[in-house]
Amino acid sequence: MNIVSTIKEVRDAVAAWRKEGLTVGLVPTMGFLHEGHQSLIQKAVEENDRVVVSVFVNPTQFGPNEDFEAYPRDLDKDAALCESTGAHLIFHPEPEEMYPDGFCSYINMTELTGALCGKTRPIHFKGVCTVVGKLFNIVTPDKAYFGEKDAQQLAVIRRMVKDLNFGLTIVGCPIIREEDGLAKSSRNTYLNADERKAALVLSKAIFHGKEMVENGEKCADKILNEMKAIINAEPLARIDYVEMVNMDTMDNIDTVAGTTLCAMAVYIGKTRLIDNFIVEM
Ligand code: PAF
Q1: pTM score, two decimals?
Q2: C-alpha 259 to ligand 1 mean position (Å)
Q3: Quick check: CB of 203 below 6 Å from ligand 1?
């Protein structure tokens, strides 16, 4: 497995694979990889001849008061995980490689991005779409893999691919959880021991809401109120949002119907964590 830092090196590697008629999968990440990322890489390895993992903490998707500087980084550990999982190439560019002087072209989606995480992170999806669009153009993969934990991001990327005619397939992969239920996230490393315990209110509320839907409850307010009560009972937790939306439009719903996303962002201390469940009715 090679680690490269320039766009030219990625393009040369992909061109050589294409000459041999090989298919290429891409797993975009910000590094500090865990079992959630590993499940994406595994799926990509199963479905493609060659797999590129990008490891890039993308500055344009962080707001001014967010954790860009503090975001955990460990390329050696990431490389070991990628290699043992069967990836073929890591693309680890410097910010200047992706955003050289004079960079001024962004992908700005006008729908889907103002809801949920977009309310408190207004520039987030512009940065995500721009970097993911660039990665698609650099790697030109047949398939790209994203986790359902970032369900809004997945919906936004699917829409971007459709709207802008990127010629690839997007594959969504299920949330991977710790044994006690907490969704795996690179940001879990910010939690101290008390916060780690408190963070269980997210998955507790998610499992409770999902169970209510499975037992036939369709009233969004009723489900959301019970979920919020579980979270509000934890003194270290502060709700950013807990909402139910239509998965395609991100519009709020009153009644569970069609493909419904129930998503939350909750601060545990200073750490903002997300979780969700998706139901098809
Ligand atoms: O989900 C992430 O880790 C990031 O948002 C992504 C898709 C790698 C873009 O920087």
Answers
A1: 0.97
A2: 23
A3: no
